[in-house]
Amino acid sequence: MTDIAADRARLLEIIRDRAIVHGRVTLSSGKEADYYVDLRRVTLDGEASPLVGRVMLDLVADLDFDAVGGLTLGADPVATSMLHASAAAGGRLDAFVVRKAGKAHGLQQRIEGPSVEGRRVVVVEDTSTTGASPLDAAQAVQEAGGTVVAVATIADRATGAAEKFAAAGLEYRHVYGLEDLGLA
């Protein structure tokens, strides 16, 4: 049995060591910041990815859902890690990918993977700044007939995402805040 507290502590250590980049950067929102949290350095890392899956599953363990996903690219490795962690624990969890725009060819789907229609899902993301990506993904899931039970991220930057999710009526959870990351 895995000790979730040890997983959380090790994942935080990896994030602090590998994902926090200090210096002036322009965020996807267009705003500038003195640091950048590049969680793809963690979610795509061979040691950290399994930790991401277990820690994120623990974060939402009390919720009733059977699929996870979000807007490509930040959500993809998070959802896949959770899918694998669930399988390793003897469970079943599907993952899905929400495109930034619908395809103009093939089946012209905006959501790839198992259908979300009639299903309860958790929208995931690696880090939340403005909340725009998870909100876009939640809207796509709802348009496809799914129910979003929560939005869950690894790290929250405390820059307004939580308030936007609340205004949209979405429960929001995150594993680490700015204090945890040593950025507050």
Largest sheet: 6 strands, mixed
The tally of helices reads: 7
Helix content: 25-40%
Radius of gyration: 16 Å
Number of strands: 8
Overall SS class: alpha/beta
The unreliable regions are none
Please trace the helix and strand order, writing H or E for each element.
HEEHHEHEEEHEHEH
**Average pLDDT taken over every residue:** 93
Structural shape: globular
End-to-end CA span? 33 Å
Q: How do the strands line up in the largest sheet?
A: 5-4-3-6-7-8
- Percent of residues in β-strands: 25-35%
Structure, explained:
- The radius of gyration is 16 Å and the shape is globular.
- The chain has seven helices and eight strands.
- The strands form two sheets. The protein has a six-stranded mixed β-sheet with strand order 5-4-3-6-7-8, sandwiched between helices.
- Helix content is 37%, strand content 27%.
- α1 packs across α3 and α3 (48-59) packs across α4 (75-88).
- The chain has helices at residues 4-18, 40-43, 48-59, 75-88, 132-143, 161-167, 178-181, and strands spanning 20-26, 32-37, 67-71, 94-98, 111-112, 120-128, 147-156, 172-176.
- By secondary structure, the chain is α/β, with parallel strands linked by helices.
Record the SSE blueprint.
Elements: H1 4-18, E1 20-26, E2 32-37, H2 40-43, H3 48-59, E3 67-71, H4 75-88, E4 94-98, E5 111-112, E6 120-128, H5 132-143, E7 147-156, H6 161-167, E8 172-176, H7 178-181
